[in-house]
Write a structure and sequence with these properties.
single chain, 259 residues, mainly alpha, 11 helices
Length: 259
């Protein structure tokens, strides 16, 4: 994961060539004519596309997850803390979003707006927040009646202060783990959107590269295989990181929750 982040941040240094530049003959196989991973149908460097595409995939994954985390925390936290009619209304709203297949909804949102990085991030965030909201609600419901919350209520502290300073810090660990795993899902969604040609047309991405190479996969297998491997490595790294975070901050691993 650290290697992927370094490659994404240092992409212009590692690969100074623009991934859209035609720098050689089309359909050059890997390890030929100076192309480590070969070239595509227009003679563009596959390795340069993968390096620069890492910036798009990781940025979209992180930005969409942060946006989904913000929405989910607000909706789930308010529902769990206030309960009653507020809880019912917000949970019915959450269920409405969950009844629509996430990929279909994301495609619809991107198609309605002009394909761009912002619309892709927004679409992925909109379909990703409901699970976070349900988990946040469950955590707030479980912790709002604990002793330290009751003590804060007895001290006359306002509700928003109790929610932000007492309940939220104790509810965050499992939510952070879910959000970290959500980055991998966001990368897969972005790749699928770009594969269908609905991504930002000005940015190289792994999904777009696979989409371009699918029509000539028998003639130039490397055009689809190497970007696909990049997606697999990124998703695997993020999933392993999420499992590591779960082990590190799980109450069973740290001797109990904060009290």
């Amino acid at each position: 994961m650290a290697g992927l982040v370094v490659i994404a941040l240092a992409a212009p240094v590692i690969s100074p060539n623009d991934p859209w530049d035609m720098v050689g003959r089309p359909f050059t196989p890997p390890l030929s004519d100076g192309f480590l991973l070969g070239s595509d149908t227009l003679g563009r460097d596959i390795l340069s596309g993968i390096i620069h595409g890492s910036r798009v995939s990781l940025f979209v994954g992180l930005a969409a997850t942060v946006a989904a985390l913000a929405i989910g925390l607000v909706v789930g936290g308010v529902a769990g803390f206030f309960s009653g009619r507020v809880d019912n209304a917000l949970m019915r709203l959450t269920e409405i979003f969950q009844t629509i297949p996430s990929f279909v909804l994301a495609i619809m949102l991107v198609a309605v707006f002009q394909p761009s990085l912002a619309s892709t991030i927004t679409a992925i965030a909109v379909v990703s927040w409901p699970p976070i909201a349900r988990l946040a609600r469950a955590e707030f419901l479980a912790k709002r009646n604990l002793e330290y919350v009751s003590a804060a209520v007895s001290a006359g502290r306002p509700g928003w202060d109790i929610a932000l300073r007492e309940i939220l810090p104790n509810a965050l660990p499992p939510i952070i783990v879910m959000a970290s795993l959500g980055v991998a899902t966001a990368i897969l969604l972005e790749s699928a959107i770009s594969f269908l040609g609905l991504g930002d047309p000005n940015l190289a991405s792994w999904g777009y590269m696979i989409g371009v190479g699918r029509t000539v996969i028998r003639q130039a297998w490397w055009m689809s295989v190497f970007p696909g491997l990049a997606i697999m490595v990124a998703v695997l790294a993020i999933n392993l990181l999420g499992e590591g975070l779960n082990d590190a901050i799980s109450p069973s691993q740290r001797g109990g929750a904060k009290a």
